[in-house]
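W.,

You were right to be curious about this one. When I first looked at the sequence I had no strong expectations either way, so I just let the prediction run and decided to look at it fresh. Below is the sequence, 238 residues in total, followed by the output.
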Amino acid sequence: MRTSGRFLVVGFVIAALLVGFFGLGSASAQTLIVAQGADAVNLDPHTTNDQPSSRVRRQIYETLIVMGEDLNLYPGLATSWEQLDELTYEFKLREGVKFHNGETFKASDVKFTFERLLDPATAADAAFLLQVIDEIEIIDDYTIRIKTSAPFSPILAHLAHPVAAILNEKAVTEAGADYGLRVAVGTGPFRFVDWVTQAHVTLGRVDDYRGEPTKGERGGIRAIPEGQVRALEPETGG
């Protein structure tokens, strides 16, 4: 199963072996660089819904459910799910998953994520996708139930949207207003390293990531507004 938006399948890679862009001193330090036409706005999934930000977030975060390139739904941070009645869905969560800050992924992070997303004070751009959620109940650390206010068959597909990426409660709480700007913590194949606005976002490979192995020891998404310059990057080497 392959998903869109990850470095493994993205179609605008500049170079898999690029030395110097991130201050790497030898050709053995493999860096996979991706170019896009605009810089990210915020790395908090609950802020903007723009594509440049989403491309970066998809490397850092994961959702309960994943939509494959074939548009079918697959397990993500949820290993399985069951519709208990027309309003209630139960999700079994993946065990043994760690956030990039070392915290263990558990049901309380899911509940925190969706309640934060739906809180009017958050003012999330894409909260409307999950506004049908009425109640989130923790059964145990690895089981959660989501109840909707009305029957809504697209709910599973909406849970695969980047806005539904699962956050770590501790990381968000401790970072405060810096979350998404100086701090971004997920469970994905790359961890956030730094962000030079209007230049690039640097990501580090998570060596013990459970999924498909990622290419490159580091990843970067570089903002190059000029289309012609962006097109020439593979030839010039950045």
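Here's what jumped out at me. The mean pLDDT is 83. And, maybe more interesting for your project: Residues 118 and 127 are 6 Å apart (CA to CA).

Coffee later to discuss?

I.
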